[in-house]
Amino acid sequence: MNEELQQRRYAAFRSCGRLLSGSRPVSLRERMASLAAEAEGVHDLDERPDVYGDGVVRALERRVAALLGREAAVYFPTGTMAQQVALRYWAERTGSPMVAMHPLAHPELHERRALTRLTGLHAVWPTTAPRLPTPAELRTCEERFGTLMVELPLRDAGFVLPAWEQLVETVAAARELGARVHLDGARLWESTVHLGHPLPEIAALADSVYVSCYKSLGGLSGALLAGGEAFAREARVWQHRYGGKLFQQWPAALSALVGLERELPRLPRYVAHARTVAAALAEVPGARIDPLPPHTHQFRLWLPHTADALTEATLRLAEEQGIALFHYWDEPGAPGLAMTEVTVGAAALEWTSEDVGKAMAALLALL
């Protein structure tokens, strides 16, 4: 989206009275004010700012390690950096540079081949189906691998999750092959509902876990790696080598603590309401929801129109009627078939099925 369109969307969505997907855009002033107000209850604001990862950053690391039931956690400025560190750690332990992952996994689609260019590791795909690989697919993988990376949920397949039994069996198969297991849990926080198990039990399946501070939690930025003490010690070494040991990171760390306090307990409610929203959207003429019902509070909506037409109609609906529905439209498949990712958060909880139907009718009328 170009700068002019971004500014138009920012202005339109800020003024809307109702928002279905995601959160309302805020200004820098509003973001700073809300952080100052909300952080008061999650950390001692009279404490000195962190220096190279101590103070509030260490407090965040301890909190996340406890939530995941792991010995230690290490904060990183980005998930891309964090996962490279985790995967190279296990490559060195197994002696194999091969990482089994899905072709739709984040390192394959969104990191400019950093895993290979910077870390010297290589991906092998046990399956191209939009799901977790099966034990049989791992056992018959065309190349031997030392690490299995599992993205929970698999975002670019539609935020899909396996059943708990499938996940357990797949992890067990990887271990039978002598591989280590790493969870890409950027959105692990909201996966407990579908999997039917708490965070510590999910994290216990893997040797290491990555979680995001801003996806779902609403933090400014950042990520954490969680695992054993030895894993965390070496992760800090590579964090420094990759340039991730920043002088001060207190705004991002505070915002993550706020997210853990405020958003984490709300996620099961968002997931439940996402099913209501998805069912209502599925009634729209020509609409397709994937998956239906959603596995988390995020899912994909497809409509048989161009992305440009839907983008313009979405912006006009926000500008003229004060209703903000979706943020971005794209055409990742066939031309004329557009897709948007829907995120059901706090703003969407007030929407009924009837509300969704009426708003979509208004949107389609503008096409």
Describe this structure in words.
The chain has helices at residues 3-14, 28-38, 56-68, 79-94, 106-109, 114-119, 135-139, 164-176, 192-195, 199-203, 229-241, 250-262, 267-282, 307-321, 353-365, and strands spanning 18-19, 72-76, 98-100, 122-124, 147-151, 180-185, 208-212, 223-227, 288-290, 298-303, 323-324, 338-343. It has 367 residues and is of the alpha/beta class. The protein folds into two domains: 3-26 and 265-365, Alpha-Beta Complex (Aspartate Aminotransferase, domain 1), CATH 3.90.1150.10; 50-247, Type I PLP-dependent aspartate aminotransferase-like (Major domain) (Aspartate Aminotransferase, domain 2, 3-Layer(aba) Sandwich). α1 (3-14) packs parallel to α14, α3 runs parallel beside α12 and α13 crosses α15. The longest helix has 16 residues, at 79-94. The model has no long low-confidence stretch (mean pLDDT 97).
